[in-house]
Specification:
Tripartite tricarboxylate transporter substrate binding protein; 18% strand; D-Maltodextrin-Binding Protein, domain 2; 323 residues; alpha/beta; BUG; 2 domains
């Protein structure tokens, strides 16, 4: 005859139930391996350089490497598309530009800005500019407007991609002036600026990564889209200087997949915030006159909701299409 002692059975059951809790308590703290940070722009541009500086600074805090992966193309949406499908464990992140919102709204891509991501932190805003080859428009922006008005459809402008922020907001300026230009999209500032210097396009809308060309005398900034003139280029007028009630400094940040555990979100946020205060990142930020736009995870989520509304209105106003 076998006799089962009831107290022994209870002890066995309690021990079994407690085991997962013990395993969780003993699990190593995040992160335990390298983190992937996707940058949906080519190497060498403002976004790439600033994100590499931030990744290097943040990696020192997390004590794990942050590997920057450049994935340009598809109107800067490849990072968002990959992260939306990734496991929500904190090891796959993306830099998230405003164009990722705009193109998703236009093309109904396989992700939703407000549903498929965990906002980690908002970092900086872009200092957008319009540049031209030195000597191309001796009378600056107003000289360009006069020439374009006298030659409808004959001038060309480049941007960092169809439906990217430089493209759509320069299109808005042209709409306000009643101008007709041909748009030529490029994969990034580098390709477009070289086409501009080579005389293949008349204008290039992009970022301050073209600053070296201006300082070298090869190009000029016809206008800047920041609230104030740039410290390094005080002669370049703002849009408000030119009579437009408009500034464009779309903030960008770091996004993770939806469902990221709150403790992992906090760890990433705190580490990236410390990285933003690192002298190495600050030097790069200031070199390209990027605008500090820090927001914590909750405030970044609120900003994204506002940006979705703004982008929806812009799409309707300009009649933008997926093409």
């Amino acid at each position: 005859m076998s006799i089962t002692h009831p107290v022994g059975r209870r002890a066995l059951v309690l021990g079994t139930l407690a085991a997962p809790g013990i395993a969780r308590a003993q699990a190593p703290a995040f992160p335990t391996r390298p983190i992937s940070l996707i940058v949906p722009f080519p190497p060498g541009g403002t976004t790439d350089i600033s994100m590499r500086a931030l990744a290097e600074a943040t990696a020192k805090i997390l004590r794990q490497p942050i590997i920057v992966e450049n994935k340009p193309g598809a109107a800067n949406t490849l990072g968002a598309a990959q992260v939306a499908r990734a496991r929500p464990d904190g090891y796959t992140l993306t830099q998230f530009p405003a164009s990722a919102i705009r193109v998703q709204l236009l093309q109904r891509l396989q992700y939703d800005t407000l549903r498929d991501f965990t906002p980690v932190i908002c970092v900086v805003g872009y200092p957008f500019i319009v540049a031209a080859k030195a000597g191309r428009f001796p009378n600056g922006w107003r000289g360009f407007v006069e020439e374009a008005r006298a030659n409808p459809g004959k001038l060309t402008y480049g941007s960092t991609g169809a439906n990217g922020t430089p493209h759509v907001y320069l299109a808005e300026l042209l709409r306000r002036e009643g101008l007709d230009l041909t748009h030529v999209p490029f994969r990034g500032d580098s390709d477009g600026s070289q086409a501009m210097i080579g005389g293949h396009i008349d204008l290039m809308a992009g970022s301050t990564s073209m600053a070296g060309l201006v300082e070298g005398g090869q190009a000029v900034f016809l206008c800047v889209w920041t609230p104030q003139r740039l410290r390094r280029f005080p002669d370049a007028p703002t849009l408000k200087d030119l009579g437009y009630d408009m500034t464009v400094t779309t903030p960008f940040g770091i996004m993770a997949p939806a469902g990221l555990p709150p403790e992992v979100t906090r760890t990433l946020h705190d580490a990236f915030k410390a990285g933003m205060d690192d002298p190495g990142f600050i030097e790069v930020r200031d070199r390209y006159e990027m605008l500090p736009e820090y927001r914590n995870s909750a405030d970044y989520a609120a900003l994204l909701r506002e940006m979705v509304q703004q982008e929806t209105s812009l799409i309707q106003r300009l009649g933008l299409s997926a093409g």
